[in-house]
Amino acid sequence: MAYQSTNPYDGKVLERFTELDGAQLEARLALAASCFTTWRTTSFAERRTVLARAATLMRERRDEFATLITLEMGKLIDQSRGEVELSAAILDYYANNAEEFLATEKLPVKTGEAIVESAPVGVLFGVEPWNYPYYQIVRFAAPNLMAGNVVMVKHASNVPQCARAFEQLMAEAGAPAGAYTNLYISKDQVSQVIDDPRIKGVALTGSEGAGAIVAARAGQNLKKTTMELGGSDAFIVLEDADLDEAVKQGVIGRMGNAGQACTASKRFIVVESLADRFLAQFMAALAAFKPGDPIDPKTNLGPLSSQEALDKLLDQVKRAVAAGAKAVVGGERADVPGAFMQPTILTDIDKTNPAYKEEFFGPVALFFRVADEAAAIALANDSPYGLGGSVFTKDIERGKRVASQIDTGMVFINKPNITTPDLPFGGVKNSGYGRELSRAGIQEFVNKKLIRVE
Ligand code: NAP
Questions:
Q1: Is 162 a catalytic residue?
Q2: Residue numbers of the domain that contains 324
Q3: Helix 208-220 vs helix 187-195: angle between axes, to the nearest 10 degrees?
Q4: pLDDT tens-digit map of 108-117
Q5: Ligand 1 pocket, 262 CB below 6 A?
Q6: Would you tell me which of 53, 224, 305, 306 could form a disulfide with 73, CB atoms 3.0–4.6 Å apart?
Q7: Do 199 and 287 share a domain, yes or no?
Q8: Which residues contact 395 (CB under 8 A, 6 or more apart)?
Q9: Residue whose CA is at the smallest distance from ligand 1 atom 40
C-alpha cells in the first residue's frame, strides 16, 4: 500500500506521500552507516541529552503529537495523549538507565581479568505497526540509540504523518543526521534493506505473516532479529474473583485502542460458577459503547484504523458465526459512516471454529465457560499465540501459581496487560521472540564482547 494518511472516522485523505527511489534509499543508508562511525563513540551523557530533549519536546507538544495519531488511525484523543506521555517516559527511562544497564561486567576468574563489554553493533532496521504509532518506534529506537546503534524505521503505510513527526522530533532534539531515519519504502525495498551489509540487525512488530517474511529474509543474511507479533491473550476469571472488578477490567482490556492491541484481552475464559453473571454484566457494558468522533474527548468508541481493517474483522466474525458461534452482542459494522465496528461478544466457539485459534484485532471478545481452574489453564494454552494474559482471583498466591502455568511472555494478576518502560515486553510461540522495554530490551542488539587478560 502506498503511504497515505486517511482519517478512518470520515474517510478523508489527509496527505499522500511518495516512496523513496533507489538513489534516495541508498543516500539514507550511506548516511546512517556514516553516522554510526561517530555515534558509537559518543558518551552516554551525550546520547542522554538527545533523548531527554526528545522526551521534553514530546511532552511540551503532547496535543500536537496526539492529534496526528487520532487523525491517522482513529485512536480516542485521551488515549493518544496517554501514548505520547508513555513514549516520552520510555525515552527518559533509557536516557537515565542505559549506562547502568550496559555497564562493563567483570567476571570472577582465577587468574588475570575477564571483562564483558556491551558494544553497539551498527545500523539497525525496524519494521513497525500503526496501532501505537509513536510507542512502537520508541520501544525500538530509544534503547538502541542509547546503546550506540543507529536506527532506520519503515513505519506502517497508514501512519506516515506520525512517522515524519517522530523523525523531525529526533532531529530537533539534536540527534545527528542519520541517527534516526524514517523510510517510506515498498516491501521489495524492505527486502533490499535487510540484505544490505550495512544493516546489522532487524526488529519487527506486526503480524505473524509479516514477521515470518522479514525474519526469513534476515535469517538468509544471518542477521539477528526480534519479533513482536500477534496475540490472543486469555483473560481467566476464577470462581473466587471479584466479579465487578473483573468485568470492569475486562472492558478496559478488550476495548482500549478500539481493541487493536496485540496484548488486548481477547479470550474471556470464565469458570462455570461465575460465567452467567460475568457474561450478563460484560454484555451490558459493551453494548453501552457509542461510536463518535475520536477527536471529541467525550467519545468512548472510535473507528478502527481503516476500512480494510474493518472489512477483515467483519469477515472473521462472519466466518466464526457460520461455524457455529453466536454473537450475543454486536456482530456487525456500527450503523454510522466511518470504519466503526460494534463491540461484539462471540460465544459457543468450539475447537473446530476458525475463531478458536485466530486473533481478533478489534472490539470482538471471545467468551468461553470452563469447569475449573485446570480447564481454564488448558484452554488458555491451547493457542498458537503466547503473548500475554490475565488471571482474576482474590487469592494472589493462587493467581501466581496459575500464571506460572500459562505459556506466554507476560501474565497479569487482576489486571489486563499494562505496559510501562521498566517491564519486559514480548512473547513466545507465534507471538514472536526477544524482548522490548526494561533492562532486557537494551540487550538485544549489543555485542557482549569478552576481553580477557591472562
Ligand atoms: P502488519 O500488516 O504485519 O504490519 C506491520 C508492519 O509490517 C507495517 O510496517 C507493514 O507495512 C509491514 N509489513 C507487512 N507485510 C510486510 C511484508 N511482506 N514485508 C515487509 N513489511 C511488511 O501488521 P498490522 O496488521 O498492521 O498490525 C497488527 C498486528 O501487529 C497484529 O497481529 C498485532 O497483534 C501485532 N502487534 C504486535 C505487537 C507486539 O508487541 N507483540 C504490538 C503491536 C501489534 P505496510 O503498512 O506498508 O503494509
A1: no
A2: 233-420
A3: 30
A4: 999 999 999 9
A5: yes
A6: 305
A7: no
A8: 240
A9: 228
